[in-house]
Fold:
Amino acid sequence: MKIMLAGYNVDYDAIKECRSALPEGGESLTPETISAAYARISRNPLPVDELRKVARKEVEKARSSTRAIVFGMGHSSIAEHAVFNIDIIGVSRLIVEEIEKFRLCSYTEKSQRYIRLENDFVIPAEVKVDGLREAFVETVKEQNSLYHELYAGLKKYMFDKHRDILADTSNRSMVDGWAKEDARYIVSLATHAQLGMTINARNLELMLRRSAAHALKEVNEYGSKLHEATVAVAPSLVRYTRATPFDLGVRKELRKTAKSLIENVDKSGGDAFIGRDGNVTLLYATPDGDEKVIASILHSSSRLSMAECLTVAHRMNMEDKEAVIKTACRHMQSYDQPLREFEYAGFSFEVTVSASCFAQLKRHRMATMTCQEYDPSLGVTIPESIRAIGMEDRFMEVIKKTEETHDRIRDLSYHAAPYILTNAHRKRVALKVNVREMYHISRLREDKHAQWDIRETTERMVRLGKNFMPLSLMLTAGKDTFVPV
Structure:
């Protein structure tokens, strides 16, 4: 057995320094050589480390074979061996939501919970017209001014309220963060963000194509700059980057079709759900979900067919069913994931969440998640701390002005209107999540260190889920309260 390190990501500035010292400008310093070597594994008897050596010596030949394998034969997974680390600076919070829709990438984002915000924001191209630009800038400046007022008031409030915690001076930054995270509810989705992204070439190509088709000009610009930054590094792996008719047309046509059909259907008495708790609606749970999970555990632990395991699980008494689940979770610690068998049952929710809450919810990319646009008619989420310091009326004054500006922008550009909305504004999110992923969400978001908005949403999701699968979800809890069996 031989296990060898084939490569790892290195800072690009370091790569540029190395290139200047290498013959031919360091042409072999491209991730394509690893992709090319791995592409040849299936048909070339040479050891893979030798294949990598050959690819480094013959870069153009490696690129040619990679193009043929990825684009000619359709083996796109070869492009996943080439990985890029991307700095993204000065984009709006709104388009971060578009960027992070790509679930097989990794993201680390500047947090508005921990960093005090300045007054930097994007002015979208769609509002750069006479009268509208001025209204947009004036509204954002008023939001930002209130943010600083709120932060000052909330900091004093939090420090007074949590004097016991502050007896340990190491907790000062945590309590200060609570003031920041509640003050940010008034800042707009146009606020500057930055993030680090790790993406493989296959997903890069998809992101470029989707960005080119997007209705917002900021997303188009993001795609162009992303293409410019990466295309020369791995030209053989990034090819189809133009918007397709599917990406350009499908959402637009669906909105038109949906509008026509919805207008002609009687919607009275149409609330189909099986549970509701505040902002969380449970639409569906796998029938006999506990039994499905138990049968899956029996199946992978025996030689019975799945049909036979389902029969056994159905005929078990409650004590035996509980014993199976507990055995499957024995030795589990707060950092352990349940077995994959827990993915055979799950739930469909609709949650109505603030932009602040969604900023965290969207990070759970193994769930299936689709969203509506932000909708002012759904109201806003106001932190209780803002009410406690007597700033609710001022908060709502700025919200009112925000929504007036939103309506003006919407009349000109439907897609650009959300830029002016705040972290307090809400939208509906459809969420399909299996039991295993529910554990992950619960561990992270029910923990005492989780932000209150998403913690409350998660608690409601878990509570509703336990009504239908009490056994499978018996060990859901935040990391701080997890108790092993």
Summary: The two ends are 38 Å apart (CA to CA).
